[in-house]
Structures are given as C-alpha cells and as structure tokens.
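TA notes, week 10

Several of you asked for a full example with nothing omitted. So below is the full record: structure tokens for the whole chain, then the designed sequence directly under it. When grading your own attempts, check the secondary structure regions first.
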C-alpha cells in the first residue's frame, strides 16, 4: 500500500513541515557532493548503537558527541528512495499534526520523536556498529499522533494486488494500524539477526510511533 493523500485539509499553512522537507533535501544534496567521504560523514553524524555501550558519564564531551547524532541522524538519508519515501509520508501526515499542535510545538515534537526513536533503536540494537540514518523515527512519531487525533480520516491509497492496481480510501486507523503491525512483526523477526542483515531500523519506527502517540497529548492545542 502506498498513500497518496489524506482527506483532512489543514487549516493553517504548514510552513514547519515544508521547512523540514526542504532542509532534509538540502542536507541530502550536500551528502551527494561528499563522494567517497560519505561513509565517514555517516559515522560522525549517524547513530552507532555500539558506541553508547562505553559511554563515560563523567566525560561531558563524550556525552555531547554521542547526543548530537540522535539529532543529526534524523536529517540524513541513505539514498533517493529513502528520502523521497520519508518526505512523502511527512508531507501527507505532518501538516495536520502541525495544525493541531501549532508551528513551534510541532518542531519540538518532531525533534523529540526522532531523538527518542533513536534511543529505542540503540536499546534494541546495542551491539550494532552500523551507522543508522533517516527521518523515519520522527515521521513514525507524526504517524502515531495522526493515529490518535484523526482516526476517522481517510487515506487515499494505491493498492497493488498482484497485477492489478487499485486506488481506494482506507480509514486512517486501519492504514496506520496495519503499518505499525507490519513494523512490529518485521522488528520481532529481526531480533537476533546479524547486524549486516538488519538494514531497516524497525524498532526506531515502533518506538517513534508509540512515543508520538503519547507525546502529542502534551503538545496538542487545548480546545
């Protein structure tokens, strides 16, 4: 299933959502200019769970250097399909959550979801030495918020049935419910696999979704 749009128009202009999308693409274009040094860039600004095993809480510089990737990794992507897919989901679901939280609070909400999703990934993959990058944990938080706030919305969805393609409206609660169920099944199946077979940060998605579900209760506007 691939979402095309939702049926809930935003009442305000989502300039934070659009700004995040533009910023992600600007960073991605910078990544494209790095050539052979891109892997080192990912090692510096992506999340490497194994590095958190030996953290020295008495060394503030190490704490800062390890905390930075929790933020910076949210704005890095590993390829065109990675960034386009993530930004498309953010475009569909982000405007409505920004509308319900307000612009500044949405920005804080998004960053917190991304960082806490990164911590979830670290806890579930503590021995991995592979840098993890991507906005999907933060976007999963946005989707969790949408699941709670707009369960009756409809998602116009492209559905592939073998050789047939259908465009149908699916209730948001079912679309997002199926999405998080798939993440949980995939995450459960990935437990115990070698780090080279990981690839997708399933637990960052799961953690981000659940975190967004809870955090939005504190960030949404009081009506």
């Amino acid at each position: 299933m691939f979402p095309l749009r939702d049926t809930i128009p935003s009442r305000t202009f989502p300039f934070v959502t659009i700004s995040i999308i533009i910023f992600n693409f600007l960073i991605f274009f910078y990544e494209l200019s790095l050539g052979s040094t891109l892997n080192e860039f990912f090692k510096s600004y992506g999340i490497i769970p194994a590095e958190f095993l030996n953290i020295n809480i008495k060394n503030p510089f190490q704490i800062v250097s390890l905390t930075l990737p929790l933020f910076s990794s949210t704005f890095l992507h590993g390829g065109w399909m990675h960034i386009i897919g993530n930004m498309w989901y953010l475009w569909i679901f982000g405007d409505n959550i920004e509308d319900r939280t307000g612009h500044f609070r949405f920005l804080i909400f998004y960053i917190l979801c991304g960082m806490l999703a990164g911590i979830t990934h670290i806890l579930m993959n503590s021995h991995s030495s592979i840098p993890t990058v991507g906005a999907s944990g933060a976007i999963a938080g946005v989707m969790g918020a949408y699941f709670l706030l707009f369960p009756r919305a409809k998602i116009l969805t492209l559905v592939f049935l073998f050789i047939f393609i259908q465009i149908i409206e699916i209730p948001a609660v079912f679309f997002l419910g199926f999405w998080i169920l798939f993440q949980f099944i995939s995450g459960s199946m990935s437990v115990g696999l070698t780090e080279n077979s990981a690839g997708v940060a399933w637990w960052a998605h799961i953690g981000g979704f659940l975190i967004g579900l809870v955090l939005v209760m504190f960030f949404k506007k009081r009506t």
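The first strand starts at residue 2 and ends at 6. Use that as a sanity check on your answer.
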